[in-house]
Amino acid sequence: MKKGLSMRTRHYLEGYMFTLPWVIGFLAFMAVPLARSLYFSFSKLEIKTAGLQAHYIGFENFRKAFTVDVDFTPKLMGTVSGLIFNVPLILIFAMFTALLLNRNFKGRMIFRGIFFLPVIIASGTVLTKLREDGAANLPIFKQYDLASTLSSIMPVELVRPLLGILESLSLSMWDSGVQILIFLAGLQSISAHLYEAAKVDGATPWEIFWKVTFPMITPMILVNALFSIVNSFTKAGNPIMDYIMDVLFKKNDFGYGAALGWIYFLVSFVIIGIVLYLFRNSLRERG
Amino acid sequence: MQSNNVAATIRQTLASGREKTSPYVPAAKRYGRSTASWVFHYLMLFGLAFVFIYPMLYLISKSLMQSSDLSDASVQWIPKELNFSNFKYAWEALDYLPKFKNSIITSLIPALVQIASCAFIGYGFARYRFPGYTLLLGFLLFTFLVPPQTIILPLYIFYSDLHWMNTYFPFVIPALFGHGLRGALFVMIFLQFFRGLPGQLEEAARIDGAGALRTFWSIMFPLARPAMLVVFLFSLVWHWNDTFEPSLFTTIADKFNLMQSLKVMDGQSQLQLQNGTAAMTGDLTGLVPTFANRVMAGSLMTILPMLILYLFTQRYFVESVERAGIAGE
Fold first, then answer.
1. Where does the ABC transmembrane type-1 domain lie (chain B) (predicted)?
2. How large is the greatest C-alpha to C-alpha distance in chain B, in angstroms?
3. A44 chain-B contacts, CB cut-off 8 A
């Protein structure tokens, strides 16, 4: 049917055919709603009998978020600092676990099965419930009274953040199922020849890790960092997310809620931008 | 030290001939490791596995306990008597079977639809270059990054105007266009997978006269089975566990899914708890009754279908992730 078309035009048309559904979806479920929410964020919205009515009020909503609202800024800072803290933790832990699992040993399949278990339960209500119930605090810390042991050997200023890390450790670990998976897939794709060559040249395992393994999985670190950031920005139980939903659907302050959503989005975008900047070298090498 | 090295060298020599043919054998095996290294390895594994299995054990243990066990300091893990009454209670409180049906519909259908649509779109992104390609790819990444809360209000209004509230459309229709819950991520997984396949297969099909659609559906799509399994499981589990969208688009209790029902049950037990403690303010024993055991039983029951599914598929799942190369770039 496309006999008269040149090869190139035909190639283009087929490409558009495959991606067209996504473009339609993008317009309907992403671009238009995003534009509308941007419009809302600069307006005061009221529900009238004729439907929603918007008055343009400029940056009023944004100003309110940082000056009048006493809840928003601390919550935002809490989310961001939690993120800066947890993402590296998740990455290190996930890489460590992936390295352990990448060896060939007895019971490998069973252990792998266990390590991906949190992917099944770690999203949503059940985990929130478990955390509220205190299941995240491992009994080891309680039994050995870690707090007093530590404070006897180091200054109190150091003990508190350290305990905070330990307490959130199991939670970060449960959040890293997908990341372990991605690292493991990356490790498996490294050619065995590289290891052999390094071994022949007399490299120690430590050197092999830093000179072969690590550079080879740098792209995976980027993928995982992005995934972890997006994941922690959108997961259930995130205080900012709950707060925005509260403003939108309980207080019905639509314009303000939209503005908060946009601030949140911009913050996440800046953080992702910083991560991409940090990884710019590995991105450039791959073109 | 010396003998260790010799042993390692021998093992290495013996192993190298056999294992060179298989690219998937990890490097560690090829260079023999000392016993100490293996002890450390297994210790770390068991330690970490404990942390990972801990929430499951916690759920199971607590859900088997009676209220008296919860406040009994001598009971840590093993309940005093085996009792399944919490499950019976949760079964009724959750209204299990109808809610199970709702959960199945709102997660299985979107998951299957996303497999088809995201594979189709991912294939287009993987195999074609056209004017505007880079822009579209940028939009794809962008879509992945936008937090759903930013656009939830306009979407809510949009779906209300379409009279999609309390129907299954908000979960299925966006999925049909490669959107919906993490649709962009699934498109990227398929994109990555198709990029990794050799182009000769399609060339052969095209020379034999198959059109683009035919080539996709009968040659390339069936090859994407590893990616399909990964996308299917992720999509199913994430939809199953999701309460964000259902809580907005489903407001009638009859249409709730299991997770929403669990939230309701949790709220009720908190309420009962408050009433209970209010009634016994005169009691100075300091024992506060909790219904955590019932909620834990309910939690276990809501994730049980996914756990069973995972038990049967995990082997293929993990292998598929490795083969699908979701980390390719």
1. 100-313
2. 87
3. none
The nearest CA of chain A is from the CA of B281 a distance in Å of 23
| ipTM of predicted complex | 0.83
Q: Which residue of A has its CA nearest to B118?
A: A22
Looking at the structure of chain B, the number of domains it has is 2
On whether the CB atoms of residues B154 and A40 are closer than 8 A, the answer is: yes
pLDDT per position in chain B (329 positions), as tens? 344 454 454 445 444 444 444 445 454 444 456 788 888 888 888 888 887 888 788 888 888 887 767 666 666 677 777 778 888 888 988 889 999 999 999 999 999 999 999 999 999 999 999 999 999 999 998 898 888 878 888 898 899 889 999 999 999 999 999 998 889 999 998 998 898 888 888 888 888 888 899 999 998 999 998 889 889 988 998 899 888 888 889 888 888 988 888 888 888 877 777 776 555 544 444 444 567 788 888 888 988 898 888 888 877 877 777 666 554 44
- Taking the CA atoms of residue A120, residue A123, residue A125 and residue A129 in that order, the dihedral angle to the nearest 10 degrees is 80
* pLDDT at B2 (0 to 100): 43
* pLDDT at site B22: 45
Q: Do residues B226 and B96 share a domain?
A: yes
pLDDT (0 to 100) of residue B282:
44
Q: Decide if A131 is inside a domain.
A: no
Q: Structural domain of residue B116, as residue ranges?
A: 90-261+295-324
- State the Cα–Cα distance between residues A199 and B35, nearest whole angstrom: 20
Q: Looking at CA atoms only, how far is residue B282 from chain A in angstroms?
A: 26
Section A189-200 average pLDDT: 85
pTM: 0.83
> Which of A1, A13, A30 to mutate against chain B (most B CBs within 10 Å)?
A30
Supply the pLDDT for residue B33. 64
| Structure-block tokens of residue A110 | 């069973």
- Inter-chain CB proximity A116 and B266 less than 8 Å: no
CATH of the domain at A201: 1.10.3720.10
Q: Are residues B78 and B123 in the same domain?
A: no
Stretch among A181-195, A201-215, B59-73, B144-158 having the lowest mean pLDDT: B59-73
Q: Do B73 and B97 share a structural domain?
A: no
Asked whether the beta carbons of residue A191 and residue B23 sit closer than 8 angstroms, the reply is yes
Number of domains in chain A: 1
The C-alpha atoms of residue A258 and residue A247 are separated, in whole angstroms, by 9
Question: Are residue B175 and residue B137 in the same domain, yes or no?
Answer: yes
Whether A275 and A225 have beta carbons less than 8 Å apart is answered as: yes
Mutate: best of A72, A121, A284, partner B, most B CBs <10 A: A121
